[in-house]
Amino acid sequence: MWKTILRRVLIMIPELIILSILVFILAKQLPGDPFTGSINPKASPGQLHHLMKINGLYDPWYQQYGNWIVHLFHGDLGNSYEYQAPVTTVIGSRAVNTFWLALLTMIMTYSIGLPLGLYAGRHEGKLQDTLVRIYSYTTMSVPFFVVLVLGCWILGFDLRLFPTAGSVTPTASGFMEVALSRFYHMILPATLGALFATSGITQYLRSGVIDARKSNYVKTAQAKGVSMNNIYKHHILRNALLPIAAFAGYSITGLLGGSLFTEQIFSYPGMGLLFLNAVNFRDYTVMTALVLLYGFLSLVGTLLSDIALSVIDPRIRVD
C-alpha cells in the first residue's frame, strides 16, 4: 500500500502543475485589476499604471508564471494586493478558522447521520424509517442557503441565541475564553451544515443496511444463532459503511476548503470567504494560491477515500 500511496503522491505533482498554469492564465483574463478602487479614489491613471508596472502585471503571463514558480520553491507565494501581507500569512490565519469549523461540522455530521441511517435501516417500512426519510428528503429538497439565512435570521438576529458574524469575540482574552468564544461562534453554522450533510450519509447507510440484511452471510449467521445485535455490529454495519467511506475523503477535504455559503452568510473569516473576496478584488496571488490548495485537497481526498475503503473492507486494496 505504501508504494501505491507514494506513486499516487508523485502523480499529483504534474496534475498540480497543469492546474496552476490553467488557474494562472484564467485569473489574468478577468477584467479589471487589483488597484483600481483599492487605493485613493482620486488616483490618476499614471499612478495606477506605475503600480501595475512595478508589480509586473504588464509582463507576459508565462514570465509572471515563471517568477511565481521560482518564488514558490522558496516558500514565497507573494503578497496579497488587498491585505498588503504575505499570502501564506493571510491564508494561514483563515485556514485555522476553516479547520475548526470543518472539524466540528464533520463530527456533528457523522454523529447524527450514522445513527439515523442505521436506525432507519433496522426499521425498514416502519414509522421510524418513514420519519427519518421525511427528514432526509426535506433537507435534500430545501436549498442550503435558504436554511442558512433562516437560521441566521431567527436564531441569530431575532432570538439572539448565537452570534451571526466573526469567529471570536474581540474582547475575549486567555486561552480558555478564546476557545469557548470560538466554539460559540461555530455552533450555529456547524449545526446547520451538519443537518444538511447528514441526508446523504443517512440514505446511503440506510440502503446499505437494508441490502446487507438480505444477504446470504447474514442469513447464515442467523441460522447459527448469532444475535441480531452482533450481526449488525460485526457484519451489516461494516459492509454498509463502504459507500460512505468512498465519499469520506471528499467530504473532509470539501469542508476544509471552506463553505462559500456558510462563511458568506455568517461573515465567518474562513478560506471560502477569503476566496470570494480575492475574486472580487482581483487579488491574483491569493486567488491562485487558494485554487491550487483546493486542487491539492481534492487529490488528497481521493487518496483518503481509497485508503478508507481498504481499511473497512480488506478485500479492497489500493493498487
TrEMBL record:
It is found in: Cell membrane. Residues 95-305 form the ABC transmembrane type-1 domain. It comes from the Bacteria. Pfam families: BPD_transp_1, BPD_transp_1_N. The keyword Transmembrane helix applies. Keywords: Cell membrane, Membrane, Transmembrane, Transmembrane helix, Transport. One of its GO terms (cellular component) is plasma membrane. GO terms for biological process: transmembrane transport. It is a multi-pass membrane protein. InterPro entries: BPD_transp_1_N, MetI-like, MetI-like_sf. The keyword rRNA processing does not apply. The chain crosses the membrane at residues 9-27, 99-121, 142-163, 183-205, 240-266, 286-312. Belongs to the binding-protein-dependent transport system permease family. This is ABC transporter permease. It comes from Apilactobacillus bombintestini.
